[in-house]
Design a protein that fits this description.
mainly alpha
Amino acid sequence: MTASPASTSSPRGWLGDRIATLYPGYFALVMATGIISNAMLFEGHRGWSDALFAVNALAYPVLLLMTLARIARFPRAVWTDLTDPRLVFSFFTLVAATDVFGVGIGLRGAGTLALTLWLAALAAWLFLTYLGFSILIFANTAHANIIHGGWLIAIVATEALAIHGLFVAPHLGDAAPLVLFACHALWCIGIVLYAIFIVLFAHRVFFSAVRPQDATPILWVVMGAAAISTNAGAVLLAAPDLPPFLHAMRPFVEGVTLIMWAWATWWIPLLVVFGVWTHGVHRQPLTYTPLFWSLVFPLGMYALASLRLSQIAGVAALATLSQVMIWIALAAWLMTSAGLVSTFWRRARRSAAAEVSR
């Protein structure tokens, strides 16, 4: 990345430094906040849902403006991140965040704005998809071990685009059948990409040396990608007025949806073990990092996916599981938010102290 501004003691310099070094996956904050807000709405907790939606209504435009400012002021830093195989898929958090936030807007009756956000997310997804996989082809090397859970953010974005599209399809008139077809296709693309990535990821984790610093919170995206695929499948199954061809796919969608939920469930205890091994056994410090938002999002998505699957499958126990998981996700969101505020406050105080000492 490019160097940050030389002076960070002034408020302007401090802000410029934050923009220059902005982590491209920071939109996971919006993803995590939005999915818990949406799940709370479906669970009947409107107060919590609206409060979290208000947070997103501030966080999303702030992060978007900071991203645009970074592109304008530090284009070389952005290009460096975009051409880094380890970081390029982090940009997909912008797509997923736009979709999750767009669904929340659509649930509150702003269909036109939700449609606009879906079209913007679709354009960003197309750009990042072919850029990201081109980077893997041209920038990867045989000896470079770059496989990690962050790659699966591309699957999360793809499935989020499918879910968002199903919510906006009724506003598209004659184009609605095409969008329904596209959403099924996006769901299928996400499933195939997951099948490819999970094999590579599992081989990396189970058959190569794993260091404590490798077991970052972004590993939870492995579960989150399976959970959002479950959620997308359940939404597809609940879609009304499907054309005969898509309706004939229901048995396939039902089977794959159950498989993805079961796979997401299987990963949760193992990911907890990773956390204990990293922070308990190897004493890695448990300090705030924006990667923790990539842990919070899967928890909220798993809660919502379990609720949606319970409605499709008629299994009440899954609804109970969802009710438990949503509060766990909220607790994780509150702790991560406290870490963000504390980190922001300490950095602001250091900047102010440096300014006074000048």
